[in-house]
Amino acid sequence: MLKAKIAVLVSGGGTNLQALIDAQNSGIIHSGEIVLVISNHADAYALTRAEKAGIESLYISKKELKTQEAFESAIMTALEERGIDLIVLAGFMSILSERFTARYDHRIINIHPSLIPSFCGQGFYGLHVHEAALAKGVKVTGATVHFVNEIPDGGEIIAQKAVEVQDGDTPEVLQRRVMEQAEWIILPQAVERIAEQISNAN
Ligand code: GRF
Predict the structure, then answer these.
(1) Which pLDDT score is estimated for 127?
(2) Residue among 8, 173, 179, 184 whose CB has most ligand 1 atoms within 8 A, to mutate
(3) Tens-place pLDDT, residues 20-36
(4) What is the structure's pLDDT at 202?
(5) Tally of CB atoms within 10 A around 110
(6) Which residue among the candidates 30, 41, 106, 112 is catalytic per the annotation?
(7) Is 112 among the catalytic positions?
(8) What's the confidence (pLDDT) of residue 1?
(9) How many angstroms is it from 15 CA to the middle of ligand 1?
(10) pLDDT digit string, tens, across residues 145-200
(11) pTM of the model
(12) Please, are residues 129 and 114 in contact by the beta-carbon 8 Å criterion?
């Protein structure tokens, strides 16, 4: 059986990318292989993580390419050239157009740091998600892995895990707990599940 070829798209620190690399090294991910990391920020620490793990990495700049269309075309070319089967958005801070998402129907997954449909959609990214959860006073939050379609955070849900909000939480403290107790666990599990389905069909 051929392993699914995985590309991870990142913008920042890349702790979710690291969780995927660790899961690959420990065998949790065995039906797929991360062969490419793409960042839209030149200084993303995620690029260093990829390099350290011996994974090819690319910086694709929207600023230099000027339009969303040219930016997405450059990403698509990189994916096609390497025969990528599965695209994982792991803290990728750029919304992809329908032209892109329709081309990879059920082949793009994203990790979102809340229990969708709470605190998701336009404007809910990074710390804003946790600020909104604390402002609302929810006692439970969590993370969601979902397929990506043209609606921000609107695609079919693959996995969710709940995390308790504690008294005195700041957005930063809550963000860290959601990562440790949910994101870094369910993202690798979901990637393995989808990669297994793809490799069975390959
Ligand atoms: C995570 O909270 C993820 O859910 C969100 O952005 C953050 C990325 O963190 N979409 P990292 O770059 O994986 O450390």
Answers:
(1) 97
(2) 179
(3) 999 999 999 999 999 99
(4) 81
(5) 22
(6) 112
(7) yes
(8) 80
(9) 7
(10) 999 999 999 999 999 999 999 999 999 999 999 999 999 999 999 999 999 999 99
(11) 0.96
(12) yes
What separation in Å is there between the alpha carbon of 200 and the centre of ligand 1? Answer: 29
Peptide bond before residue 117 is cis, with ω within 30 degrees of 0:
yes
Distance (Å, rounded) from C-alpha 39 to C-alpha 146? 20
Write out the two tokens for 11.
């913008």
C-alpha to C-alpha distance for 171 and 162, rounded to whole angstroms? 16
Ligand 1 atom at minimum distance from 15 CA = 14
Quick one: which of 131, 97, 93 has its CA closest to 112? 93
Rounded distance between C-alpha atoms, residue 179 and residue 181, angstroms: 6
Q: Using CA of residue 22, residue 82, residue 103, residue 91, what is the dihedral sign?
A: positive
Q: What DSSP string describes 11-46?
A: SS--HHHHHHHHHHHHTSS-SEEEEEEEESSTT-HH
Residue at token pair 């336009």: 122
pLDDT tens per residue, range 13-72: 999 999 999 999 999 999 999 999 999 999 999 999 999 999 999 999 999 999 999 999
Q: Given this model, what pLDDT does residue 52 score? A: 98
Secondary structure class of 90 (helix, strand, coil): coil
